Amino acid sequence: MTLQLNQGLETRESGPDGWPREIAEDVAYLRTMIVNVVFFGRPGTGGDRDWVLIDAGVAGSASTIAAAARRRFGPGARPAAIVLTHGHFDHVGALEALVEMWEVPVYAHELELPYLTGSSPYPPPDPTVGGGLMAAMSWLYPRGPIDLGDRVRVLPEGGSVPWMPCWRWIHTPGHTAGHISLFRDTDRTLIAGDAFVTVKQESAWAVLTQAQEMHGPPAYYTTDWPAAWRSVRKLEALEPEQAIAGHGPSMGGDELRAGLGPWHASSTTWRSRPTAAMSAGRRLPTPTGSSRYRPKPRIRGPTS
Fold it and tell me: 1, 25, 33, 181: which has the fewest Cβ within 10 Å?
């Protein structure tokens, strides 16, 4: 199957307000205040359980996401699954409301489950890194956890993504221990999550204006910079043709590849950059009384 692709930054505006914005016939993204969610599935099919939502936006955005889904897939069309790149507050804010509304399973990396099953909050942010108001205010941001109970499932081993044929998930730790990105080899489309972003997320002005800038993961919540650098290198090696990050506009073509390249020169900074969480040794909290988190329930879902 050949998909129609949009080159560079050009996107087709599919809703009356310009959202969600397509970068391929079956991939579109919606910005919910400060963060993007992604829709995978062919629009207008009218089929229930024929599409997948990637990430779940900020708190209070459930109705906005649901309305965009209705415009794209038809009234009453619920997703087959919600896939999370990670569980930070701005990626799961509407998750519990959407799970209840749609009665849908959620998939995440095993290392994210402590934050999704009520076991552990994320490590505290570091407001001193990155500069800007968004970073300075990060101590106010919710750290979780949320508790999805038996609605959350571990992503299948081997990289397959439930209900997303031709896609694979790639472990891209650094921003969080269980962070993942999604990649489709057939057209080299990348859903990066927060492995890298295309806006300076630490700056309130940049977030407000959505000034495009290839940038590392949001600094205030990134706990392992050496791992984050390796993850970007891993994604760069895929030679993506187009990408949607968790924050900022879509980017593609030569502009995307040129934006990823300069991290070679700054690798020393990435590998040595500390945060308060790293200095305190807080890379991944382990629930009390357990040397290794074992998710419960350990449910592995279908691969197609």
Answer: 1
Nearest to 171, CA basis, from 155, 187, 153: 155
Round to the nearest angstrom and report the end-to-end CA distance of the chain.
17
With respect to CATH, is domain 12-279 assigned 3.60.15.10? yes
Residue 154's φ and ψ, nearest 5 degrees, are -80, 135
**How far, in Å, CA of 50 to CA of 47, rounded?**
6
Please report which helix (H) or strand (E) contains residue 180, including its range.
Answer: strand 180-184
164: burial class by Cβ within 10 Å (0-12, 13-18, 19+)? buried
**Dist. CA 215–CA 246, nearest whole Å:** 11
Global pTM value: 0.83
Task: Please report, for the chain, the start and end positions of each structural domain, with discontinuous segments joined by +.
Answer: 12-279
Contact 69, 29 (CB under 8 A): no
Bridge partner list, 35: 32
CA distance 84 to 215: 21
d(CA 80, CA 53): 8
Length of the chain: 304
Q: How many angstroms separate the CA atoms of 106 and 103, rounded? A: 10
> Which letter does DSSP use for residue 262 in this model?
G
For residue 105, cis peptide bond before it (omega within 30 degrees of 0): no
